[in-house]
Amino acid sequence: MDAFSRSFILGLGLSSEVMKELVIRLNNVWRLSLEIMKGEFVAVQGPSGSGKSTAMNLIGCLDYPTQGSVYLEHHDISRLSESELAQVRGKKIGFVFQQFNLISSLTALENVALPMIFQGVPAGKRIKRARELLEMVNLGNRISHKPKELSGGQQQRVSIARALANNPEVILADEPTGNLDSANGKNVMEILRNLHEADKKTIILVTHDENLARMADRVEYIMDGRNKRDTK
Amino acid sequence: MIRDYLSLALNSIRSRRLRSWLTMIGIFIGVASVVALISLGQGLQEAINSEFASFGIDKVIIQGKSAGFGAPGTFSAGKVTEDDLKLIKKVSGVENAAGRIIKTATIEFGNEQQARAVSSLPNDNREASLIIDANNFKLKDGRMLKSSDRNKVVLGYDYAYGKLFSKKVYVGNRILINGKQFEVVGILERLGDPFRDKAVLMNQDALQDLYGSSREFNALVAQAKKGEDINKVAEDIAKAMRKDRSQKEGREDFEIQTPQQFLNSFNVIFGIVQAVVIGIAGISILVGSIGIMNTMYTAVIERTREIGIMKATGARNEHILSLFLAESGMLGMAGGAIGVALGMGIGKLVEFSAQKALGSSLLQAYFPWYLIAGSLLFSFIIGAVSGVLPAMQASRLKPADALRYE
Predict the structure, then answer these.
(1) Which helix (H) or strand (E) holds B3?
(2) Is the pTM of this model over 0.80?
(3) What is the predicted pLDDT for the residue at A128?
(4) Both ends of chain A: CA-CA distance in Å?
(5) What is d(CA B262, CA B58) in angstroms, rounded to the nearest whole number?
(6) What is the DSSP string of B165-189?
(7) Based on the domain organization, do B67 and B44 belong to the same domain?
(8) DSSP H stretches of helix in B56-91
(9) Domain A5-231, what fold?
(10) Which of B4, B308, B314 sits opposite A91 (nearest CB)?
(11) Which of B8, B302, B306, B313 to mutate to test the interface with A (most CBs of A within 10 A)?
(12) Domains: count for chain B
C-alpha cells in the first residue's frame, strides 16, 4: 500500500531511562515492528507492561526511538528536530487519552480551539471550527463549560473534538474508554468507528481490552515488547 | 498570536487568584514606594527649582550671621545696614541692591487682632521692583504700592481668600497696624508659601514711621549685572564687606547666599535621600521578582501535565516559553500597575497632609508620564526576566514525560 505508511522498529535501546527499565525487565529482548496503512483502523493490544505505552509514545511522535526508526509518510521522524516533531503532532496526529487530558482552566470550546492556536489559525476561524466539532460530538450546548463541569463521557467527547481540531490524518486513542462506563465507552467507540468509516481517518487504538480491540479492522498484539500479527 | 498567549496567560493567572495576588504584592509594594517617592521628590525639586527660577539665579542674599560658634561673646549677631547697601551697590558687577525690613506688628480688622510680619518695600522704584521680582510677588487684585503711598498696604493672598480673619479683607478695606489706619490697595496672587501668602507690604518710609527710623535691614538682595558670574559677584561683595568691617575670611559676621549654593546643598541631601529610598525599594522589587520566579516554578511543576498536553497537541518549545513568559510578565505588569496606582495615591495623600499640616503647597506630587510608563515597562520586564528560567524549564519538558506526570 502506498501514500501513508508507518513503521517502527525498536531495537535494544539503552539510553533512555524507560527503555533501560524495559530492557532489564525483558531480558534485553525487545523487538517490535509495525506497519500501519493510511485509512486503517488498527488496534494495538497487549497486557500492561508489554511496551504498549512506549509504542504509543513513538507512534504519537511524543518521543524519539533510542534505536531503530519511526517513519511517517516515508520520513524518518527520528531525524526531525523537537520543533518539527511538534509540527508533525499538531498537524498529523490527534490524541485521545484515557484521562481525557483537558486543560482544567479552559472551557470546552477553548480546549478544542487550543491546538489551532499552535498552528496559527486566526481566532474567528478557530472558534467557528471548535464550535462545529463540539456540535458534531453532540456537545453544542456545553461549549462554555469547564472540564470539571462535564461528565467523563462528555469530557472524552470534548477530547475527540480537540483531536480533530487540525483535521489530522491519524487519531491515536490510548485506552479511550478506560475511564468510562460501558454506555459512554460504547458511544466513544462509535464516534471513532464513524470517523474511520465516514471520514476515512486512520485510527490507532491502543488497548489491553480484547473486546475493544476486536472492533478494529486489524489487531497488532504486543507481548513482552515483541509483536505477533493477527489479521481479522 | 501574542494576544492568544496573553489571554491564555491571563486565564492561568485568574485560575490561581490568591497566589497571583500574593505574588503581585511583592512587586507592587516596591513599585508603589518608588512611584510615591519619585513623584514627591520630583514635585519638591520642581517646586524648589521654580522658586529659584522666580528668585532668579542672578541674585544673592546678604544677611547678618544669626548665631556664632565658639566661646560666648566671640561673635555677636551680625547686622546689615544702609551703609552695607551703599557699599554693595558700588561693587563692580552689581547691577542693583535693595534692603528689606521685617517687623512683627499687630494687625486689627473687624475687632480681631493678630500678630503678623510686616515687611518693607524700598521707596526707590528700581529697588522696589528688585524686591518684588525676587519674591515673585504678583498682583491678584488692586494695584502695587507707589513710592508716594504712605498709609497704604498690599496684602498676601490669605487675607482675602484664606481664613485669617473671620471677615475677608478686600481691596479698599481699612486695617489697623499697631493702631494706625492703613488702606488695602492690592492683594497678591497665591504663592503657596505660608510666609509670603500672609505678607503685609508697605513702603519703607511707612514702616519706619511705625517703628522709628533705623539704618538696619533684615536682609539685602543684590542683583548681578547681565553676564556676570554670580559666584564671583558674591565673592566681590564679601571682600568689600570684609574690608569695610576689617574682618578676616571665615570670621565674618555676615553671610552671603547664592541660589546655586543653596540649590547644591539641597540637591546633595535630596540625592542621598532618594538613593537610599530607591535602594530600599529596589530590594523590595528584587524580593518581589524572586516571588514571581517562585510562583512560576511552582506553576511549571503544577502544570507539567498541561504542558505535556499542549506539546502533544502541537505546541512547540517556543510556544510554551512565550506562554510562561507572558504569564510572568503579566504578573509583573499587573503588580506594577497596582503599584503605580497605589504610589500615586500615597503621593497625593502626602501632598494633601503636607498642605493641611504646613499650610504650604510647596510639596506637590508630580507624575511625569515617563515615571508611569517607565514603572509599567520596568515591572513587565522584571516579571518576564523572573520567569525566564522557569519558562525555559517548562519549554524543555519532554512531551512523553510531561504527559505521564501525575
Answers:
(1) helix B2-15
(2) no
(3) 96
(4) 18
(5) 13
(6) SSSPP-TT-EEEETTEEEEEEEEEP
(7) no
(8) 82-90
(9) Rossmann fold (3.40.50)
(10) B314
(11) B313
(12) 2
Is B185 a residue whose pLDDT tops 70?
yes
- Cβ distance A86 to B317 less than 8 Å, yes or no, reads yes
Task: Quote the pLDDT of residue A224.
Answer: 62
| CA atoms of B347 and B331, how far apart (whole Å) | 24
C-beta atoms of A101 and B403 within 8 A: yes
Contact B313 A97 (CB under 8 A): no
pLDDT at residue number B55: 74
Q: What is the ipTM of this complex?
A: 0.84
- In this predicted model, what pLDDT tens digit does every residue of B68-85 receive, in sequence order? 454 444 445 678 888 999
Measured between beta carbons, the chain A residues lying within 8 angstroms of B315 are 86, 90, 118
- The residue among B257, B282, B315 that closes a domain is B257
d(CA B377, CA B387): 15
B-chain CB neighbours of A62 within 8 Å are: 311-312, 398-400, 403
Tens of pLDDT, residue by residue over B197-241, are 889 999 998 998 888 888 889 889 999 988 888 888 999 999 999
A175: burial class by Cβ within 10 Å (0-12, 13-18, 19+)?
buried
B1 min Cα distance to partner chain A (Å):
7
Highest-confidence segment of A157-166, B184-193, B363-372: A157-166
Give the one of B12, B305, B400 whose C-beta lies nearest to A57's C-beta.
B400
Find the domain containing B352 and state its range.
2-52+263-404
Residues B379, B289 share a domain: yes
Q: Is B341 near chain A, with CB under 8 Å? A: no
| pLDDT < 70 regions, chain A | 1-33, 66-69, 73-75, 224-232
Q: What is the pLDDT of residues B150-163, one digit of tens each?
A: 899 999 999 998 88
CB contact under 8 Å between A60 and B398, yes or no, is no
